[in-house]
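Researcher: Please generate the 3D structure of the following complex. Treat every line as part of one assembly.
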Amino acid sequence: MPTTTPDLNALVVGDEVAHAEHLITRDSLVRYAGASGDFNPIHYRDDIAEFVGLPGVLAHGMLTMGIAIQTVVDWVGDPSRVVDYQVRFTRPVVVDRNDGTTLTVSAKAAVVEAENNRARIDVIATVDGRTVLGKAQAWVSFA
Amino acid sequence: MNCVPVNPALQGRAYPPTEPYLVGREKVREFARAVFATNPINLDPVAARAAGHADVVAPPTFPIVVQERTLTQLLSDSDAGIDFGRVVHGDQRFEYSRAIVAGDELTAQLTVTEVKTLGGNSMVTAATAISDASGQHVVTATSTLVVRGED
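Model: Done. Output below.
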């Protein structure tokens, strides 16, 4: 399946290039625990989350980070084009045992370096209108 | 048990390289599905090859699986003085020289690049350099761990 790479020269700083909403459920947390090997029980046991003083079972920060970048991957068409990706974990993502939680991701062009064939895409990840990742920045190669 | 503070002499410490980690195709697919990846380059070897890759490409955050082994070295080092129960993951970064593909044999080595104290908490930054079987750099995975001080 051929994918089309977006045109770097058509990127305008500040423009939203992609947007997505993802439902994270307890099932998602168990699946990520298995795939990543992070079996910290605060990500699947209400009693332990409560015991350590958390507001509820939390999504793994690395799961939120991993889902958030998919919006950029889908836009650029090839995961290998993401050459640098960083986040700060600023707010825990509580996952309701029945309803899960919805992560909203908006990707915006932040820096365009045509001479270096790359652009920095900033990721705004929110739950209920509040950001959960800070300084979420991805450098994407168009080379 | 007393809370042992993070050892300031930790800065600059390097741990031994880990045993090679063989990146399996099904592991890449499993991880890709777990982070909601739908790109065929993550999942389908035919699509990956058509895009010029040797095999399926791991999602951008996959190196955490390999890095985790080095973080275990750090957290289990009693001389480091990091109480795991007080650790919160503060920041994470992945800086690539090239993408990870199924079939790669990866070795990881962690170096503590910074230890600082901020408002009663310690911040430990650890950079894990991940290299392939030929010794070429693939990606550096950097974590900043916030170690909460006494309550």
